[in-house]
Design goal:
- The chain has 293 residues and is an alpha/beta fold.
- 46% of the residues lie in helices and 13% in strands.
- The chain is globular and about 55 Å long.
- The model is unreliable at 1-22 (pLDDT under 50).
- This is Enoyl-CoA delta isomerase 1, mitochondrial.
- Its main location: mitochondrion.
- Pathway: Lipid metabolism; fatty acid beta-oxidation.
- Keywords: Acetylation, Fatty acid metabolism, Isomerase, Lipid metabolism, Mitochondrion, Transit peptide.
């Protein structure tokens, strides 16, 4: 799940418009903000805001983890909308510089941060909706898939795991390919996942809806209202039984990772710190800096 190449899809950063922030972060950077929805006070709006493309660095992953661990403890909130404060991009995936030139220990810690963020979101008892207001490749797609429901904006945006077209599929496997694969497979099925991962496909919003990768495609200004519509329907269900059922359905996928978290992180660190892979990654970083990747 290395930082993905965007290709033909739009990635247009816009100014951050909200100053709300979560109260749980020790870091000096508020890459994640939390605020109550303006129309539904039992809904938290979680916004990613790391300019320019919401790449997932260590601080941002840890803030996402803390956010989704703490929100269920806030009794007022029953649901959360995960979206971006940078219209045009949901998240461009993992920060490649968190892997390139890093020691094995640093990469190990980064791999653990990825796993913890996924567990906090995928296993969250609340109603979670991804308001995908822009392009969402690689780990950005993983965040969206980890929610209960996905609403994507119309436009020249892409979503999917396109790592095979960026560095190598072995990098995907090294960064936890099995549980990542299972997260997608649980949403769209084995055959579609098999094709999507091997071909490294970034789907347009309409294509993503057709295969079930997203549930709704809406105009940009209707993303949050559409998220509210889904939440209103789910709030009609008994909260406890619904939450328990969700966790029961997802527990096998979570247990598979939890049973081997350290081993997976160690394998990631061993592979990604290898000089041969770092050389390949260095060529990609150089191409990125020259605008060729």
């Amino acid at each position: 799940m290395i930082l993905a190449k965007i290709g033909r899809f739009s990635l247009r950063p816009s100014p951050i418009v909200s100053s709300g922030s979560a109260k749980w972060f020790a870091s000096g950077h508020n890459y994640v903000t939390v605020e109550p929805d303006s129309e539904m006070d039992n809904v938290a709006i979680v916004k990613m805001q790391k300019k320019p493309f919401n790449v997932l660095c260590t601080d941002m992953l840890q803030q996402l983890t803390t956010t989704f661990q703490e929100l269920p403890k806030e009794k007022k909130y029953k649901a959360a909308i995960l979206t971006s404060n940078i219209p045009g991009v949901f998240s461009a995936g993992l920060d490649i510089m968190s892997v390139y030139g890093r020691t094995s220990d640093e990469i190990y810690s980064f791999a653990m941060d990825i796993q913890n963020a996924w567990i906090a979101l995928y296993g969250n008892p609340m109603i979670t909706v991804a308001g995908i207001n822009g392009t969402s490749p690689a780990a950005g797609c993983l965040l969206a898939l980890s929610c209960d429901h996905r609403i994507m904006a119309e436009g020249k945006f892409g979503i999917g795991f396109n790592e095979t077209k960026v560095v190598s599929m072995s990098a995907v496997v090294a960064m936890g390919g099995i549980w990542m694969k299972n997260t997608m497979q649980n949403v769209i099925g084995f055959r579609k996942t098999e094709k999507a991962l091997q071909e490294g496909t970034l789907f347009t919003p309409s294509q993503a809806k057709e295969i079930g990768l997203v549930d709704v495609v809406a105009p940009m200004d209707q993303i949050i209202p559409s998220c509210r519509d889904f939440i209103k329907q789910y709030l009609k269900l008994p909260y406890g039984p619904r939450s328990m059922t969700k966790q029961m359905l997802r527990q096998d996928t979570i247990k598979q990772l939890k049973s081997a978290m350290k081993e997976d992180a160690e394998a990631s660190a061993l592979y990604l710190s290898d000089p041969a892979f770092q050389k390949v990654l260095g060529s990609y970083v150089a191409a990125m800096s020259e605008g060729k990747a």
